[in-house]
Amino acid sequence: MIHKPSTIIIPVESQVRELDAKILLACAAAERGFPVIIGSRAFIHFQVDSLPRGVYLAKSMRTLSIRMFAILRDLGHEIVGWDEEGLVRWPDDEYYRWRLSPVTLKKLSHLLAWGEDDARVLRGYPGYPGTSIHLTGNPRIDLLRPELRSFYQQKADMLKEQYGDFILINTNFSKVNHFFPGLSELKKPALELEAGCEETFDAGKGRLKQVLFEHFQEVLPALCRTMPDHTIVVRPHPAENHRPWLEIAKRYPKLKIINEDSVTPWLMAAKVLVANGCTTMIEAAVLGTPVVAYQPVTGGKYDDDLPNEVSHRAYSSDELCLLVQEIVKSEKGAVDELERCRIMAPHITALDGRLSCDRMVDVLVDAGYLQGPPPAVPLGKYLRGRLHNRVRTVSKKINMRRPGHRNNFAYHQHRFPGVTADEIQTRINQLGELLGRFQDVRVERLSEYIFKIE
């Protein structure tokens, strides 16, 4: 009897950040014989009760996922998970509170870790149920490696031609400046702290984020005056409100507010990246792009140390402007490569050797998913999962019409704008040419936001 392999289900929440890496992962899985469903996480969830029984690759394990994970397991899907935000983390106890749940972790069949430090933190979680942890890295890093970064070279060359020796500012303030203000998770704790309430971690972190947000707005005019002949591009976080940045840009013609495509070609094309405490700084360090961590205030336990450690540091507006000038003039480069690698090694697996996407697929193959789908669940359990998903879908689609709601359709479009099957196939072909692989991998559009790759 011939068994069909498990279908691998790959949800994407933020298209500009995740899609290219997950297309690479889908190709690696398809090459080994797995059919893959990939697309908008929201719309995959709406249709998950009609998808073939398979393996759902979860990008987070938060409390918010408890209901969906229960539905997935009731439908007979297994779940393999990693934390997309697991590279740059808060202190362990706060990370556990924000990003992990003992209920969701118990639903996982396997855990994939960015690196040994990520695995250490997962093992130390009080609710860790003993699930197998595999050091795989993340396919986002694969695309930064020398053998694949030319995937973005044409776009990077176009950006250089369009903007010249531009300065890239990456912001990370969605928790105090969200696309929908009511979803700014740390703004209220920060205001409560100003009103004299007790300092919780959320309040302290929120205050630091708010102060940094204000400093970044204040330093933009200074940079524009210091570098009048250079374009400055501000790239807000995918969940961030662009309005404050656009207001500043009205006064400075060479200040551009742009959040389109993957950040990688922008990092490749930029003369320097300026940011504070975000994963993009580590991505730039992997590429060898000079990075300046702008730290006009420091927050001790509230600081995100790893990205700042692979960067030059500027503690004032004047110091930042001077550093940027030196880098743009090629008087200063990136932090020493050996030092960057030493800092990143405990945190990122697959900086060399087998690609992260292949290591992830190895886990799926070794788990037996290539031999067939997970075992069927009892009919009553399946019907319960199907009913719960239909009820959840109706609720979510109603919320899509509610202004300011986290499920609002405008916010979905902001994070996952339209993409065509032809565009995805073009990316597959480009990746295949670079690696000498994926010649037979094809994409088929199943619905507006969902695709099949096999």
What percent of residues are in strands? Answer: 5-15%
Low-pLDDT stretches: none
Whole-number total of structural domains: 2
Rg calculated over all Cα atoms: 22 Å
CATH hierarchy class name of the largest domain: Alpha Beta
Number of helices: 20
Number of strands: 14
Give, in spatial order, the strands making up the sheet with the most strands.
Answer: 6-5-4-3-1-2-14-13
Distance between the termini: 21 Å
- The average pLDDT is 94
Helix-residue proportion? 40-55%
Q: Give the structural class.
A: alpha/beta
Report the biggest beta sheet as strand number plus sense, adding barrel if it closes. 8 strands, mixed
Label the overall shape.
globular
User: In CATH terms, what is the architecture of the largest domain?
Assistant: 3-Layer(aba) Sandwich
Question: Would you give the CATH topology of the largest domain?
Answer: Rossmann fold
Explain what the structure shows.
The protein has 454 residues and is α/β, with parallel strands linked by helices. The chain has 2 domains: 7-143 and 355-453, Rossmann fold (3-Layer(aba) Sandwich), CATH 3.40.50; 149-344, Rossmann fold (3-Layer(aba) Sandwich), CATH 3.40.50.2000. It is built from 20 helices and 14 strands. The strands form 2 sheets. It has an 8-stranded mixed beta sheet, with helices on both faces. Helix 12 crosses helix 13. The longest helix is centred in the middle third of the chain and has 26 residues, at 201-226. The mean pLDDT is 94.
